[in-house]
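Please, structure for the following, as tokens.
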Amino acid sequence: MSLLPHKHMLGLEGYSEQDITTIMDTAERMREILERPLKKVPTLRGITVVNLFFESSTRTRTSFELAEKRLSADTINFSASVSALSKGETLLDTARNIEAMKIDVVVMRHRSPGSCHFLAKHLDSIIVNAGDGCHEHPTQALLDMLTLREKFGTLKGLRVALVGDISHSRVALSNIIGLKTMGANVILCGPATLMPRGIEQYGVEVTHSLDDAIHRSDALNIFRIQLERQDVGLFPSLREYQKYFGVTRARLEKAVAPLTILHPGPMNRGVEITSDVADGEHSVILRQVTNGVAVRMAVLYLLAGGHPELSEPKP
């Protein structure tokens, strides 16, 4: 039974400020587990989780796998390239066959927006969205928000700029929804060709000037150019993009105060971010990675109805 008023995590739409706070508070407790000599608790013992990844992933998949193992869940990893899908089987048939093996949670990444919502309508299992096309990536947004809260103490009133390829980023929408729910001010910055139409309906500001975004922000969350999802001709060249929207130390020095730098990865160094910024003293990129495991532990624990005690296993 879920410890949240939700069965699934398909996106952050519908998750309240209290829901998100509960997840972040639980993630902080989970992070304490990761700092113990024995980084494992029996919280989800007996729960079986299948990782259904239909797109390549290193950071997210590894993070979920670690989270599952740290909670003592039984984990199955599914590879689309060697599955019956390559022989023509449908997504639903594949999922139903896997569920027939009595699994409890499905963590899925898929290239099609809405694919997780589709599964949730047809399966009894808990569904966790690990990224669906250009739609949402809720656990990434949660770890971004946890990292910001850790740095600033609160998200309310915080000014966060999302910089880069907004149209093709599944992280962007989840960040917008989550940050706005938590009372932050969100600025979107990027070329007009990489900005979704009507995005202002979410209560965000849009600027096409990186210097303007830097001047008005407390933190920058920088997204990579997702060439694999784009039609050609959305901007002249990577060199041109770097000239106008690449985050460099020289640009950051124009800020009123030092800005906190985030990036969901993987990074295109020298394009959207330079190495001296990515590895600089105000970067929290590696902290995001650590928080990613803690957040995914929290989400799995809360949705799968883990035991209330997060204690070490008894000898």
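The chain is about 35% helix and 15% strand. The CA atoms of residues 180 and 186 lie 7 Å apart.
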